[in-house]
Amino acid sequence: MIENNFDRPPQKTDCQMNLSIKNFLIAISLAFIFQFVSGFLVAILTKGNSSAFLETSTGTLIMSVVNNFCYLLAIFLVYGFKNSITDFFAVKKKAIRVGVTWGLIALTMNFVVSLASNMWYQANDMSPAKQNIVQVLEKFDGPYMLLTIGLTSLLIPVFEEILYRGVLQRTLQKRYSVRTGLIISSLLFAVMHFDWYQLPGLFVIGMCFGIAYNKTNSLLSPIIAHMVNNIFALALLFYV
After folding, report:
1. Of 120, 101, 96, whose CA–CA distance to 197 is shortest?
2. 142-150: Cβ within 8 A, 24+ apart
3. d(Cα 199, Cα 113) in Å, to the nearest integer?
4. Residues contacting 100, CB < 8 A, separation 6+
5. How far is CA 233 from CA 11, 109, 187, 205, 237, in A?
6. CA gap 239, 81 in Å, rounded
7. CA atoms within 13 A on the CB side of 137
8. pTM (predicted TM-score)
9. 164, HSE (Cβ side, Cα atoms, 13 Å)
10. Positive or negative: CA dihedral 199, 205, 207, 213
11. DSSP code at position 94
12. Which candidate, 10, 29, 25, 14, places its Cα nearest to that of 170?
């Protein structure tokens, strides 16, 4: 049986990071600056034709990785590389099992919520756009598609969980309450995907990943949950 302890504080640990709202805002500001600089460099390298470059398969993949690395670099600069790695990847008992379990729960809950959302959209004569990931994959074929699937399944979950659960959720839970931190970080996780028709499902899976973290106090759990969810979700997109 799954314990319903998501609204209780996770076990105390020797946190190495200074999880303050100020540091979080500094990290996000730095990430935006890095992204602006990277975009400026792309414009220079493409001789002002960056829009056309970003429409290509190569451009989309490169900028996706670069944008995520901007967040990662900002986090390491603000919180310290050693402290961040020590905090993020502490190996805890049951971390893998909890991750797999909540990844499957997230997948199931997302399916149910998405089904209900689509029924509501149809009842109100609304036509949901295709998911962002589907629109991206439609641009690719061959090696580019395989590389995109690999990034989506294995690399992007690491980036996103470091930001949303490793930094944002923990900062809010320390400053406010566990429940507040879980809800707000999950909501921002959903909003920042800019996939408005899928917003309810994204919020639900964000909650599942946050609960996975709180159950083990190890970022390995939500990372594994995120990977499991993405792998199965992509498989369903292709084969169902």
Report:
1. 120
2. 144/57, 144/58, 144/61, 147/61, 148/61, 149/234
3. 10
4. 224, 225, 228
5. 31, 12, 20, 12, 6
6. 40
7. 18
8. 0.84
9. 33
10. negative
11. T
12. 10
210 residue type, one letter: G
Contact 156, 60 (CB under 8 A): no
Tokens 């398969």 sit on residue: 57
Instruction: Judge whether 217 and 233 are in contact, CB under 8 Å.
Output: no
What would the pLDDT profile of 40-75 be if each residue is shown by its tens digit? Answer: 888 888 887 777 877 776 777 788 888 889 999 999
Residue in the block written with tokens 């959209």: 121
Single-letter code of the amino acid located at 46: T
Over residues 189-236, the pLDDT tens digits come to 999 888 877 888 999 999 999 999 999 989 999 999 999 998 888 877
Selection from 122, 118, 99 nearest residue 201 by Cα: 118
Q: Which residue has the tokens 């990277």?
A: 38
Q: What is the DSSP letter of 129?
A: P
**What tokens appear for 213 in the block?**
């973290």
User: Can you tell me which residue has the tokens 């310290």?
Assistant: 80
- Number of Cβ within 10 Å of residue 162's Cβ equals 22
Strand (E) or helix (H) holding 106: helix 95-123
Residue count of the chain, please give it: 240
Backbone angles phi, psi at 126, to 5 degrees: -110, 140
Mapped to the 3 state alphabet, what secondary structure does 2-50 carry? CCCCCCCCCCCCCCCCCCCHHHHHHHHHHHHHHHHHHHHHHHHHCCCCH
Using an 8 Å Cβ cutoff, are 184 and 62 in contact? no
115 pLDDT tier (thresholds 50, 70, 90): confident
What type of residue is 222? P
